[in-house]
């Protein structure tokens, strides 16, 4: 059986992960920079302080993150990250945390199918759906 981990590329992965730690009551559980690679070259010197790999735990889920060093980060609308919570209070706190500095696409509210749900684009351009279980 496989596990699926969202891998988020960022212009500043550490800063973005720290936002998620605060917004989603998470924890950075590992951070490696390019300076830690065993073999270095001239290009590595330029990006030595950039994040090569970061593991973030939020809402019981693991997310991978990295600074984008080869091309600019471009966001699209073809994928949302969805977190489903057991309790409305947890979901509302997560939604409000992600919306801080972001854009609410659909307010967090009771939906006709029975759960609470909302959509937000966080300040880094990541689209989220936050919901409660049915």
3D structure, described in words:
Helix 1 (about 15-25) runs antiparallel to helix 3 (about 90-100). This protein has helices at about 15-25, 40-45, 90-100; strands at about 5-10, 25-35, 50-60, 60-65, 80-85, 105-110, 115-120, 125-130. It starts with 6 loop residues before the first strand and ends with a strand. It has about 130 residues and is of the alpha/beta class. The longest helix has 12 residues, at about 15-25. The protein has a four-stranded mixed beta sheet with strand order 1-4-3-2, covered by helices on one side. It has a four-stranded mixed beta sheet with strand order 5-8-7-6, with helices on one face. It contains three helices and eight strands; from the N terminus they run E-H-E-H-E-E-E-H-E-E-E. The mean pLDDT is about 95.
Topology:
Blueprint: E1 7-10, H1 13-24, E2 27-33, H2 42-47, E3 51-58, E4 61-67, E5 81-85, H3 88-99, E6 103-110, E7 116-121, E8 127-132
Parallel strand pairs: 1-4, 5-8
Antiparallel strand pairs: 2-3, 3-4, 6-7, 7-8
